[in-house]
Amino acid sequence: MKTPSWFDNWNPAMRGAYRKGYEVGATGLGPDACPYKDKRKDCGGLTWSRAFQSCWRDGWDAGRQ
Question: What distance in Å separates the CA atoms of residue 53 and residue 31, rounded to the nearest whole number?
Fold first, then answer.
């Protein structure tokens, strides 16, 4: 698996999201296969969901190449 240079600095959960995206990208599925949905707090604030989406998409892009 091809990883970015800063991959080892991510926490295990973010590395897992990248790995999952990489595997999906390598199989040829589209970006809509991302399991991480955009979630918000009850007050409307952001959660970590967008960070997971970003890691997954980075992995997906790397897996497609």
Answer: 10
65 with 2: CB under 8 angstroms? Answer: yes
> Would you give per-residue pLDDT tens digits along the chain (65 residues)?
999 998 999 999 999 999 999 999 999 999 999 999 989 899 988 899 999 999 999 999 999 99
The residue count of the chain comes to 65
DSSP annotation of 42: T
At residue 44, the 3 state secondary structure works out as coil
Residues 6+ apart with CB under 8 A from 58: 4, 18, 21
Q: What gap in Å lies between CA 31 and CA 63, rounded to an integer?
A: 11
